[in-house]
Amino acid sequence: MPTTNSTAKLFELEDIILHNIESNNTEVHVFFSLHRKTHVCPHCAAITDKVHDYRTSVIKDIPFMGKKTFLYYRKRRYHCPYCKKHFYENFSLLPKFCRITTRLAFYSIHLLGNRHSIQSISALLGVSNSFVFRRMKDVSFPKPARLPEVLFIDEFRGNAGGQKYQAILTGAKKHRLFDILPTRSQTDLMLYLQGFPNKKDVKYFVTDMNNVYKELAREYFPNSTIFVDKFHVVIYVTRTLKNVRKRIQKDLHPSKRKYFKRSRRLLLTHKRKLNEESLQALKIMFLHSSDLATAYHLKELFYDFIESKNREEAAKKLKFFILATQSGNLKEFQACLTMLGN
Questions:
Q1: Per-residue b or e along 255-291, where b marks 16 or more CB atoms closer than 10 Å to that residue's CB
Q2: Mean of all residue pLDDT scores within the chain
Q3: What's the sign of the alpha-carbon dihedral 172, 178, 180, 181?
């Protein structure tokens, strides 16, 4: 087999005329053209093999042996003697008006499936970030056929379809992504869930404290038990403690206000994890505000409840936390207790 044929086969560019290959430490440059043959005119369907001229296109291709690959394609432009129009010859690896091969586009999609970042893929392939983003639109993901027994719903900030937030559905039992929706609106979620035939098979519905999601669960999953996941509950309680601190800071001298702000992480840390110096810093803060001391105590009670080892222990600690919150008379934690109760 001739050397040129072997090289063309190695690059998966068979049935070409290989003119030259140049290589350095980072790049490979392949120069080639196609065999001349008859073509059907796309304008009038006449058959012709008359060449009008040649033009060279530089095409980005899939990396070869760890090097960026560029194809220098000397392409023919054919002339139709019947309609007098010109057209380029067909090349399967290169879509019309493109300067990037089809297999490079598919390879970028493959890398996205392996959890690479957009920036790392564009740097590896020598393409722009926008090119990789556009390839995501080329992949279609069909809607799942059936809902899982344990369905988790949450939201994240994005920019799909002009929406600021998107909804993400997860099969919590197998820890697998179920689907991503371009919007979190109640109407769109209702339209999405209506098409599933096994809505009654959903046994557990896990969500945050968004009432919209709870209403959807009550309407579409009548046999499910609704749970608020631990992460969002903890975040809500710690945010309540932050609100107490911010309220107190507003009435302090600027120097003390800065001290409170610098020490905010101490308030969120479990007491048993603090050293003596940190505990003394907390005592100084509590001397300025009994409300902050109460809020910190309630946070510690809640942390203790979260770490319960069984249902009976959790029930006792939760009851104690509720009683302490009611007697603490802090408006922020009173509102937090009302939200958790809903």
A1: eeeebbeeeeebbeeeeeeeeeeeeebbeebbebbeb
A2: 85
A3: negative
- Helices of type H across 38-185: 102-113, 118-125, 129-136
Taking the mean position of all CA atoms in its chain, how far away is CA 239? Answer: 25
Q: Give the pair of three-digit tokens for residue 162.
A: 């002009």
> pLDDT tens digits, residue range 249-266?
888 788 777 777 777 888
Mean pLDDT, residues 23-50 taken together: 89
Residue found by looking up tokens 């590896």 in the block? 124
- Residue 342 pLDDT: 65
By DSSP bridging, strand 27-34 and strand 67-79 are parallel
What distance lies between CA 67 and its chain's CA centroid?
29
With a pLDDT cut of 90, the percent of the chain lying above it is: 18
Alpha-helix runs per DSSP H in the chain: 3-10, 102-113, 118-125, 129-136, 186-194, 211-220, 230-249, 254-262, 264-268, 276-288, 290-306, 311-328, 331-341
State how far the Cα of 340 lies from the Cα of 41, in Å rounded to an integer.
Answer: 71
Query: Strand locations in 35-172, DSSP E?
Result: 39-40, 47-48, 51-64, 67-79, 86-88, 150-157, 165-171
Q: Rounded mean pLDDT of 87-113?
A: 81
∠ at Cα 171 (167, 173), nearest 5°? 145
Are 192 and 178 a contacting pair, CB within 8 Å? Answer: no
Question: CB atoms < 10 A from the CB of 329, how many?
Answer: 10
Alpha-carbon Rg of the chain, whole angstroms?
32
Nearest partner of 207 among 277, 131, 153, 171, judged by Cα: 153
Write phi, then psi, for 189 (nearest 5 degrees).
-65, -40
Q: If 0-12 CB within 10 Å is exposed, 13-18 middle and 19+ buried, where does residue 135 land?
A: buried
Whether the CB-CB separation of 180 and 168 falls below 8 Å is answered with yes
Residue 1: pLDDT above 50?
no
C-alpha pair distances (Å), 116 with each of 40, 113, 154: 42, 8, 23
Pairing of strands 204-207, 150-157: parallel
